[in-house]
Amino acid sequence: MKGFGIVVLLVLQSLLAFAFDPSPLQDFCVAINDDRSPVFVNGKFCKDPKFVVANDFLFQGLNIPGNTENPNGSNVTLVNVDKLPGLNTLGISLARIDYAPYGLNPPHTHPRATEILVVVEGTLLVGFVTSNPDNKLFTKLLYKGDVFVFPIGLIHFQFNVGRTPALAFAGLGSQNPGAITIANAVFGSNPPISVDVLTKAFRLNEDVVTYLQRQFRPSSY
């Protein structure tokens, strides 16, 4: 039994080691859309290092405000591996988040990344909720220059409580962190989740559920 316990521990450690973006074993592995490449890492083919140039590690445009004319009044400009090929295997990405007055980056999760946020302009109410069974809310009012961290996988949000636009930048611990916006995923899935499931899960009547599904329904169906 002691030997079996050691084996289980080693397996768990191995699984934990692969729970995040793997550490690179080379200087870089610039992503390229070319299936002739012999190297394939993190879902991307790698450019031959002999042909890598400085522009492979460059993204321009984060000085440009995002369009916040939408129901949430916010815009996320994400710089991940799809926009910056040099990020492949490096385990990081970056985002610019613009908020209209009283704009909201609604409750969402990043399944593959911890997020660290710095406020550049404005005042943001931010928070995250721990997992079951506690569902404890940690929340804070952030001002210019303040930094806050959202643990990997936990539901979190940012809300501009000011009358002027706000701006923040976020670093994320994955080259492709992913994002699941809770309301969109639950009420706007394609095809829709059964009304019976949602009425029971949220303890709402059917009319409310169908109304919410209409609000979040993608234009594709």
Automatic annotation (TrEMBL):
Pfam families: Cupin_1 (PF00190). Disulfide bonds join C29-C46. Gene3D superfamilies: Jelly Rolls. This is Germin-like protein. Oxalate binds at N105, H110, E115. Residues 60-210 form the Cupin type-1 domain. Belongs to the germin family. Mn(2+) binds at H108, H110, E115, H156. The keyword Manganese applies. It is found in: Secreted, Extracellular space, Apoplast.
